Structures are given as C-alpha cells and as structure tokens.
Amino acid sequence: MSKFCQSCGMPMNKDPQHGGTNSDDSKSTEYCSLCYKDGGFLDGCKTAKDMQDFCIRKMNENGMPKFMAWVLTRGIPKLNRWSA
Predict the structure, then answer these.
(1) What is the rounded radius of gyration, in angstroms, for the C-alpha atoms of the chain?
(2) The pTM is what?
C-alpha cells in the first residue's frame, strides 16, 4: 500500500475509507477514497496544477492558511497519477 495517495498526496492513514475502490469493488492501495471510486477519479482534475489548486481550495475551506496548503501540495506533480 502506498503511504500517500498517488493523486492528491493525502496520507493514506488519514483516509476515512482506507482507500478508494477499483472497478471490481476491491480496495485501491494507490488512491484514497476522496480521489478514486469504482475505478475512476472523482475530482475532474486534468493536470497536477488542477489538483494542487483543488487541494489548496479544500484545505482553505477547512481553515488551513494558503501558504501552508501550498507547501503541502508542492509534491503533487511527482505522484504516480501525474508523473506518467
């Protein structure tokens, strides 16, 4: 199992569902439940920059300062979903 979601970078141990689901309903070991369900991505993001902006916006909505959210999303372009 990946230590971090390979789409958004969230620690997998923070995922309330402990992973997204593949098309065969098995647990994904690579993507979190907030990003991945039934074998498809839920976020609509086309690029790593889209994902960074999406995550920063969500973290801001939850009270995190923009700078801290930006720091936490800097590694997104290196994750498996975006580096391929």
Answers:
(1) 12
(2) 0.90
